[in-house]
Amino acid sequence: MASIFVVEDDPDIADLIAHYLQKAGHAVKRLTSGTEVMPQLRAAPPDLVILDLMLPGMDGLLVCQAMRADATTASIPIIMLTARGDEADRIAGLELGADDYVTKPFSPREIVARVRAILRRTQGGGDSPPPPAPTSTRPLHHDATAMRIHCHGRALDLTAHEYKLLLVLLGQPGRVFTRDQLLDRAWDDPGAVTDRTIDAHVKSIRSKLRQCQPGAEDLIQTRRGLGYLVEF
To answer: Is the pTM of this model over 0.70?
Structure first.
């Protein structure tokens, strides 16, 4: 029997997944918000996490990134679950460390089969996902435990949205994110704001980076007509 966290805010979907996993002999704990995940994982690490991409509080990509950045949770297998079928989202999840990716609508038996396959590999001596390389030597460093981002060793005083936005960029240095992609990942309701909201938040983050250390604002680069990226 394995211990599995199902992180899904839709109660019908969560009930369906939990029912089939419990029939297969697993112990299931259900969470409905992304912000609940890390404290619960540290308190009682499960054998596997099924993680919805669209979650209130903190989306699945950010949760996945936070898990892989924390030594206590870095090796826990993750199955991403989402209604999105866009290739870029699948690739982003896998690049951040997800072990598998299931798109809604899905067969609950398929979920059970994928869980069984991953647990067979991880609990049977197969290779587990490696912990991420230390990032403390970088000019920007994410402290997943404290949920703070440091610039040259100093914690930045960021708002919740500034933190989420910078965390998205920091998760994939060198990748250009469009404004729409940043809105989608850093805002619970991206339709309630405009893409110019991103520009305003980037300007504020750059100001705080400059206050931390002159020149640090250049870590966030603009690609005209495309979007933004973090470049070390």
So the answer is: no
